[in-house]
Amino acid sequence: MNRRVLTILVVAFAIALACTLLVIRLTQNQTKTVKTPPATTLVVATKSNINLGAILTADNLTTIEIAGTIPKGAILAKDKNSAVGRGVLSDLYEGEPIIENRLAAVGSGGGLAATIPQGMRACAVRVDEVVNVSGFVTPGMRVDVLISGTPPGQQNLTQGTVSRTLLQNIQVLSTGTDYQKDAEGKPKTVQVVNLLVTPEQAETLSLASNQTKIQLVLRNPLDTKVADVPGTATSNLFSGPIGKSSKSPHVKKIAPKFITVVVLNGSKQTEEKFSSPEGHQ
Length: 281
Fold this sequence. Notes:
single chain, alpha+beta, Type Iii Antifreeze Protein Isoform Hplc 12, 3 domains, six-stranded antiparallel sheet, two-stranded antiparallel sheet, 3 helices, 17% helix, elongated
């Protein structure tokens, strides 16, 4: 065989071998980069929207698959029955996984009582739906409680009605006897607001409800700072100088009155003017 042809065959074989090895290496690397799909877990979810205070039934529940890490506190499909009969502490939405801390404790039932944390109280406060903003207050919002009235023993003082901030950054638990929103999701106009307070704050509110007029003031839920508010009185609204006109009053000047006396001296005639007595007044 021609030596030149043999050289070409050897080079071609070497190139073919190198290409084969390269293809094998690329295939192996690609196989390594393919990740195994994460395992899925069946958890309990809601079939439809469920409002705060409702009690879950088997018809409200379904199961969904979640890939990878499931939300902390999610109820597994095998424990589905543990969610039945428990009250809902906050609104749930269709397809949302049910978390343990969104449900009341087993046996506590539903309704408003189930939404009250341990150590806290729900205190009902009557409010004026026109003067106050109760028609726009919905569960979860934060309000300040203002009171207006005359302090005991100061009825005869001149300062009048006194207003002060009684409580700050108080959570609204419910509004009215029906603490759910209407079909359009709009807040209902009510005259009673239930506030989530401590036992000490409940005593204060109870006394204020009977002795003073209460007004609720909405606040930004992100604003948790307690302001140092000294309060004010009716007399403070009218304190300070009353505004006066900068122009001096215009005084009309009255020209003095004179008495003219004609003096005849022979054929010469002269006139003399004398001020009248009224002109000196």
